[in-house]
Amino acid sequence: MRKLLAAALCLAATATATGCGASVEPAKEAKDPRSTAVTLTNCGHEVTYDKVPERVVTNDVGITELMFALGLEDRMAGFAMPDDKGDLTDVPWKDGYDKVKWLSKDQLTKENVLDARADFVFAGWNYGFREDAGFTPDALKKLGIPSYVLTESCRNGRTETARGIMPPLDALYTDLTNLGKLFGVEKRAATLIAGFKKEVAEVHAMAPAESPKVFLYDSGQDQPFTSGRYAAPDQIISEAGGVNVMHDVQDSWTTVGWESVVERDPDTIVICDYGDVSAEQKRKFLLSYAPLRQVSAVKHRRILVLDYVDLVESPRNPSAIARLGAYLR
Questions:
Q1: Are 269 and 217 in contact (CB under 8 A)?
Q2: What is the dihedral of CA 150, 152, 158, 162, to 10 degrees?
Q3: Counting beta carbons within 10 angstroms of the beta carbon of residue 10, is it exposed (0 to 12), middle (13 to 18) or buried (19 or more)?
């Protein structure tokens, strides 16, 4: 998915952070010093890691913050992400950004991974991993560097590039569980997951009786780039009380036609805010684009802006559900 980042927003309802501006205490769980192998299931395949990684590099904001949320800054050698991530003042794991080296303001490459002396790469398909640059798990394996693929980005085989093998929040919980096992912080992972599930359940319980139809607009004027069934917005929308009008698209982030948006007539549009085109520019385009004139969300100007990091797999997904739920109600 895209390079982007987003203005930092707070995460609620974990065991150590309960509101906007709250801080997350460093994980007190001792890191497991074991040297025995650990086998995890990643993208449907069993992968064995010989030891606990000590010099992890990550690509993109959501992936990086999964490590921070687990208190694993001291296991990291650096991260790659663009520099438009916004104000981090109230991010619960701000210390992670202060402590870990910023390797690149673009994407990971073999060169910066090797320069960082990385012993583990955590990225995803379209979140760093890409065939055109030869930056793939197989290529890293040949260099003796193990990797882990973000579950939201797992390829599902429906087409050459289609992604997504499970509901988005399940993907989030799967990655937290796997990382907890690999790094010996299972209790920390379980606490985070329990807090997230509680927060999501509370929002879902307040959902409106009739589910409003929601369209996620990422970018694009000739054709919109949006969320299918397996990207995080699909479940963010459903748990908030709405229904993603592109739920039948068996992919994660993908392109559709404007005619399908018009036909499905969403009640609300959610804009994904990131990159060179501002959220306000996207909003003006949607409101002025003639084919959308009769779409309910456009007629009634029901448009909500959420940040990129809210809408890709990340520990900020539950708070995004809460904010979207409040808007839909």
A1: yes
A2: -80
A3: middle
Q: CA-CA distance, 150 to 162, in Å (whole number)?
A: 14
End-to-end CA distance of the chain: 30
- Give me 107's structure tokens: 């994407």
**AA identity, residue 319:** S
Q: What are the tokens at 221? A: 């004027």
Q: Which of 23, 4, 210 is nearest to 106 (CA)?
A: 4
Distances (CA, A) of 253 to 164, 274, 301: 9, 15, 24
Residue 123 — φ and ψ, nearest 5°?
-150, -165
Please choose, from the candidates 318, 271, 312, 323, the residue with its C-alpha nearest in 3D space to the C-alpha of residue 5: 312
This model's pTM is above 0.90: no
Q: What is the pLDDT of residues 50-96, one digit of tens each?
A: 999 999 999 999 999 999 999 999 999 999 998 765 567 778 888 89
CA 117 to centroid of chain Cα atoms: 26
The identity of residue 111, as a single letter, is: E
Closest CA to 81 of 119, 122, 26: 122
Which residues make Cβ contacts (< 8 Å) with residue 14, sequence separation at least 6? Answer: 24, 69, 92, 191, 192, 195, 196
